[in-house]
């Protein structure tokens, strides 16, 4: 087949339908761009809010916006920038870029990408509409209780935050699962882990951190919403709760979050700097060690946000040391980059301007970070404008500048055109000067005693000039961003056509035509060297000519390769799903669930839950095969089985990643229970003992576990697993009902945190028994539909994994219930 | 700390500029030396020194059992005001100005009636949060008589910026009278 004919044939298979069909898009090319464009829309909204803040603070005793409105604005500025801009922005970049860097045709779960996008869009929209209606959250972006509790924030505002952000977080969790599985299983043949481009390593570590970083926040939001909506006291000190539990859960997420945002940006720098230095990255292995070290350390220093809450000084010293140590892996990366430039032959272009901007701003933010890690200094600077300056230096320096560099670096990939240089350079200087003018001065206002989050200040405290100059700087920076926006439009309209690989980069994403076709690569390459040092110009031509794997259309199937996790040997053909409206419908049903909770129309909630479950049952219908295909040809004289016929497939790994998320959520809940049992005030009075229902539920859950295992074993022997699965479904439903009964007979769970904890622990286990029962039912339906055979057994494996999990979670449940019945650990 | 940070900032940016503008000057540096020198040998001694200094300084600021006895003053926060009481001064009255004896350490016990607040007199030292259900203590000392501004440092709702107070430090002899106590 000719290159053009091949392109047309593959394009027909992978294309997204036009018109309304665009809403059925599942392709990572489209969704990655949608994520990034939407993130930029939210960045603009967050920027406008920042301008309002600076307008208000430009002069003392300002009456421009009153405190009520100001509180909504600064809360929304933080919330929008962190949750609706930064996280989705790098998710979009990773969704678009990773398959290209790794040599795959799409991500592992294209429909999940789409579902994540709709959750992000709908969740973000809820927040913005609430703001326009005047009901935006107003308790600060970290929502400290009891200010955010029902007593002190009786309106809907805090619910908008808790529910809207949790809705958006679905997209973070789905993206994390998908990225981990894609990086581990979907690379070009021959790309072992040690040959992976460095951005792949950065994203693997980031996505791994997201799997265990987000659950504490999601749990905290669920608990706070339960307290607000149903009066279950977890944070109320008058009923055995503790407001500090919220701070621990929030920062247990919130600190790793900073590194979750920084690492993808650092990955971008590690990808770009070698291109402009014209030599391979220095210290590839040292950088991998550094980012893994950073990931570990980042989970051990959340308390440095809480140095002034009254924790003993020696405990603070431990977290202080951990916070300071993070400077070491950061320094390793900084010097690896400088060393790469110093030992290369650097050339300059617009992305490098922003790389230099990154160095200036981020190094400054890193140094103030070390200062803030020191307890005595922190107790002076905490919650002052010094911290505001520091966090903007770190986040703008460590994320926005690298993202602007990435924008200019990869824009030719989106547009197929070169930059128009006229505007790019003044835009950079406006942003750099404006940024430093705004935020450098805030170090001084902070040291002069200006606390954050005040809507106005008297004029005799010496803060007037500094604030005015900060505001001027803010407006300069905004002009810079506006110029960047115009510059992007100019490039789309007037940029010169760029050929393939305009920067002479050495990574795979440039070995394809630009704008990228929906299938990325006509042929999937064989990789024999480190994949960030390839001869792209030669490789691009070979691939376009069809020399590589899977360089043919087959049976209208969207095919890509799966590889062995470590060695990169191809071990399966992954058959990806076609465009579908199911993600949209499922996200709409999910939105109904959240809106029902938000407006307290509780009958909608169970209806929407059932709708979501039914829709997810429909997701698997187009997947799988009714007969065993055996080994299928992949080109280059090789043949491997389809993904449904191997054990080590992406669905299985996604289940394990999902369990990692879920187990972290449960661990956070158990941490919360232990924390309150040990520390919270008001646990003196005797409380009722637990009932025996959880013990019975543990026994029935173990029975389900045995049945799911029996089903898998008999299926492997060729005996139908259907009866076992049906039985497992019934036992799972029984377990759920027993646990729900256990919840129902807890007397007055709203009276004390001890009882409320028992209530949610039982609820968590009940939900998981129900999930196990539904998966057994689903596997039974798949058996009936003929999708299961002794080799096509993924449905049974997934069922077994989640049934095991539903049983295992009941063991700590029983232990914690006994501890709570004894009145806690006093 | 400030000058140290300046030196490090200039060092990193200087190296970056040289590497971009005159790479030949740095071409002699072996690649791994960048990572070992800049990433390990430079930061580790600095961080260890800083941590030890911070720990020693932090310990000195702590109220401790065996040390000098400090007078106890209670600060009660609520939305959006501060009230101060002096349990050790017989006959003293509640006040909305914090009266302190100059030149003596004072233990300020901070509590709250509603949400989280934070007690801060920027010129006298660090801050301490007022957490519902808990008592937190901070030891402060005003060296000279005079008025010092105090504020709430933790965002506490729409009256947050109005929640300031004055700390008035008196000569030791005048202090009991200032709080209405019997001399």
UniProtKB/TrEMBL annotation, chain A:
A GO term, aspect molecular function: heme binding
Pathway, per record: Energy metabolism; oxidative phosphorylation
Chief subcellular location: membrane
GO biological process, one term: respiratory electron transport chain
Endpoints of the signal sequence: none
Record membrane topology: Multi-pass membrane protein
Recorded catalytic activity of this chain's protein: 4 Fe(II)-[cytochrome c] + O2 + 8 H(+)(in) = 4 Fe(III)-[cytochrome c] + 2 H2O + 4 H(+)(out)
Subcellular location: Cell membrane
Sequence intervals crossing the membrane: 35-53, 73-96, 117-140, 160-181, 201-224, 244-269, 281-303, 315-340, 352-375, 387-411, 423-445, 465-490, 573-595, 601-619, 663-683, 689-708, 724-747, 759-781, 802-820
The enzyme's E.C. designation: 7.1.1.9
InterPro entries listed in its UniProt record: Cyt_c_oxase-like_su1_dom, Cyt_c_oxase-like_su1_sf, Cyt_C_Oxase_1, Cyt_c_Oxase_su1_BS, Cyt_c_oxidase_su1_bac, Cyt_c_oxidase_su3-like_sf
Keyword Transferase: no
Keywords for the protein's UniProt record, in alphabetical order: Cell membrane, Copper, Electron transport, Heme, Iron, Membrane, Metal-binding, Respiratory chain, Translocase, Transmembrane, Transmembrane helix, Transport
GO cellular component: plasma membrane
Top-level class of the enzyme under EC nomenclature: translocase
Segments forming domain Cytochrome oxidase subunit I profile: 14-528
Family, similarity comment: Belongs to the heme-copper respiratory oxidase family.
Name under which the protein is recorded: cytochrome-c oxidase
UniProtKB/TrEMBL annotation, chain B:
Cytochrome oxidase subunit II copper A binding domain sequence ranges: 68-181
Residue intervals passing through the bilayer: 42-62
Any Pfam family the entry gives: COX2
An example Gene Ontology CC term for this record: membrane
Keywords for this protein: Copper, Electron transport, Membrane, Metal-binding, Respiratory chain, Transmembrane, Transmembrane helix, Transport
Record localization: Membrane
Principal location listed in the UniProt entry: membrane
Reaction(s) this enzyme catalyzes, per UniProt: 4 Fe(II)-[cytochrome c] + O2 + 8 H(+)(in) = 4 Fe(III)-[cytochrome c] + 2 H2O + 4 H(+)(out)
Bilayer topology annotation: Multi-pass membrane protein
GO function term, MF aspect, one: copper ion binding
GO biological process, one term: ATP synthesis coupled electron transport
Role this protein plays: Subunits I and II form the functional core of the enzyme complex. Electrons originating in cytochrome c are transferred via heme a and Cu(A) to the binuclear center formed by heme a3 and Cu(B).
NCBIfam families from the UniProt entry: CoxB (TIGR02866)
Family label: Belongs to the cytochrome c oxidase subunit 2 family.
UniProt-recorded name of the protein: Cytochrome aa3 subunit 2
Organism of derivation: Devosia limi DSM 17137
């Amino acid at each position: 087949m000719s290159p053009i004919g091949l392109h047309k044939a593959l394009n027909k298979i992978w294309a997204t339908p036009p018109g309304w069909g665009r809403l059925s898009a599942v392709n990572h090319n489209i969704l990655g761009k949608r994520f990034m464009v939407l993130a930029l829309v939210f960045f603009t909204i967050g920027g406008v809010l920042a301008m309002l803040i600076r307008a208000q603070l430009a002069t003392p005793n300002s009456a421009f916006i009153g405190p009520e409105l100001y509180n909504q604005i600064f809360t929304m500025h933080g919330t929008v920038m962190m949750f609706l801009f930064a996280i989705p922005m790098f998710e979009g970049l990773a969704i678009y870029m990773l398959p290209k860097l790794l040599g795959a045709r799409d991500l592992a779960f294209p429909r999940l990408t789409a579902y994540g996008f709709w959750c992000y869009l709908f969740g973000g929209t809820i927040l913005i509409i609430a703001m326009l209606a005047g009901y935006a959250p107003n308790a600060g972006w970290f929502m400290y209780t009891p200010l955010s509790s029902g007593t002190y924030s009786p309106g809907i505002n805090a619910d908008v935050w808790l529910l809207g952000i949790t809705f958006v977080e679905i997209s973070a969790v789905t993206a994390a699962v998908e990225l981990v599985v894609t990086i581990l299983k979907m690379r070009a043949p021959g790309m072992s882990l040690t040959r992976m481009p460095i951005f792949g390593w950065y994203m693997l570590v980031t996505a791994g951190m997201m799997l265990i970083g987000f659950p504490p926040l999601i749990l905290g939001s669920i608990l706070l919403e339960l307290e607000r909506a149903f009066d279950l006291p977890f944070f109320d000190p008058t009923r055995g709760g503790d407001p500090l539990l919220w701070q621990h859960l929030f920062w247990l997420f919130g600190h790793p979050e900073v590194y979750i945002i920084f690492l993808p940006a650092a990955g971008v720098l590690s990808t770009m700097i070698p291109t402009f230095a014209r030599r391979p990255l220095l210290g590839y292995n040292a950088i991998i060690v550094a980012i893994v070290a950073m990931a570990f350390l980042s989970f051990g220093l959340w308390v440095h946000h809480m140095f002034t809450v009254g924790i003993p000084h020696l405990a603070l010293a431990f977290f202080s040391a951990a916070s300071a140590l993070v400077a070491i892996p950061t320094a390793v990366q900084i010097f690896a980059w400088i060393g790469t430039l110093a030992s290369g032959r650097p050339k300059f272009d617009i992305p490098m301007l922003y790389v230099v901007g990154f160095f200036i701003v981020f190094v400054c933010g890193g140094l103030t970070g070390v200062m803030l890690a020191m307890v005595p200094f922190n107790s002076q600077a905490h919650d002052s404008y010094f911290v505001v300056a520091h966090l903007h230096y770190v986040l703008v320096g460590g994320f926005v500048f690298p993202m602007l560099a990435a924008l200019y670096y990869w824009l030719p990939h989106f547009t197929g055109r070169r930059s128009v240089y006229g505007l790019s350079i003044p835009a950079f200087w406006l942003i750099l000067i404006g940024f430093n003018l705004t935020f450098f001065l805030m170090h001084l206002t902070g040291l002069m005693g200006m606390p954050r989050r005040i809507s106005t200040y008297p004029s005799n405290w010496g803060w007037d000039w500094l604030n005015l100059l900060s505001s001027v700087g803010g407006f300069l920076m905004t002009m810079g961003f506006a110029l960047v926006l115009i510059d992007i439009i100019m490039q789309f309209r007037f940029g010169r056509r760029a050929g393939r690989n305009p920067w002479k980069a050495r990574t795979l994403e440039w070995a394809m035509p630009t704008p990228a076709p929906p299938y990325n690569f006509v042929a999937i390459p064989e990789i024999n060297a480190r994949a960030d040092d390839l001869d792209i110009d030669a490789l691009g031509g070979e691939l376009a000519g069809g020399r590589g794997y899977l360089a043919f259309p087959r049976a209208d199937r969207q095919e890509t390769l799966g590889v062995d996790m470590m060695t990169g040997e191809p071990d399966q053909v992954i058959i990806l799903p076609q465009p579908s409206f199911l993600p949209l419908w499922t996200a709409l049903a999910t939105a109904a669930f959240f809106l029902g909770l938000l407006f307290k129309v509780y009958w909608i909630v169970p209806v929407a839950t059932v709708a979501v479950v039914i829709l997810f049952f429909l997701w698997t219908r187009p997947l799988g095969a009714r007969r065993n295909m055996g080994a299928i040809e992949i080109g280059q004289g090789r043949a491997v089985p389809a993904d449904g016929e191997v054990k080590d497939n992406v669905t299985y790994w996604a289940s394990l990643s999902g369990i990692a998320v879920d187990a972290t959520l449960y661990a956070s809940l158990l941490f919360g229970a232990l924390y309150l049992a040990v520390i919270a005030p008001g646990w003196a009075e005797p409380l009722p003992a637990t009932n025996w229902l959880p013990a019975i539920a543990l026994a029935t859950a173990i029975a389900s576990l045995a049945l799911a295992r029996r089903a898998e074993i008999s299926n492997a022997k060729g005996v139908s697993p259907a009866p076992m699965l049906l039985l497992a479904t019934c036992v799972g439903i029984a377990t759920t009902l027993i646990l729900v009964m256990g919840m129902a007979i807890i007397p007055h769970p709203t009276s004390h945190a001890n009882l409320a904890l028992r209530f949610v622990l039982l609820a968590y286990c009940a939900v998981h028994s129900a999930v196990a029962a539904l998966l057994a039912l689903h596997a039974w339906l798949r058996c009936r539909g003929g999708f299961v055979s002794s080799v096509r057994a993924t449905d049974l494996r997934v069922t077994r994994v989640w049934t095991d999990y539903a049983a295992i979670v009941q063991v700590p449940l029983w232990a914690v219930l006994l501890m709570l019945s004894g009145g806690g650990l006093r | 700390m400030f000058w140290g940070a300046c030196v490090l900032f200039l060092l990193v940016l200087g190296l970056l500029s040289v590497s971009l503008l005159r790479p030949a000057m740095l071409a002699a540096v072996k690649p791994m030396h960048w990572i070992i020198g800049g990433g390990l040998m430079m930061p580790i001694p600095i961080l260890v020194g800083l941590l030890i200094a911070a720990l020693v300084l932090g310990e000195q600021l702590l109220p401790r059992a065996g040390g000098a006895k400090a007078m106890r003053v209670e600060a009660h926060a609520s939305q959006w005001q501060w009230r101060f009481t002096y349990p050790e001064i017989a006959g003293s009255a509640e006040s909305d100005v914090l009266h302190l004896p100059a030149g003596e350490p004072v233990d300020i016990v901070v509590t709250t009636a509603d949400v989280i607040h934070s007690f801060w007199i920027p010129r006298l030292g660090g801050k301490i949060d007022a957490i519902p259900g808990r008592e937190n203590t901070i030891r402060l000392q005003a060296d000279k008589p005079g008025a010092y501004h105090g504020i709430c440092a933790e965002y506490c709702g729409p009256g947050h910026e109005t929640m300031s107070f004055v700390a008035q430090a008196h000569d030791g002899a005048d202090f009991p009278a200032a709080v209405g106590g019997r001399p």
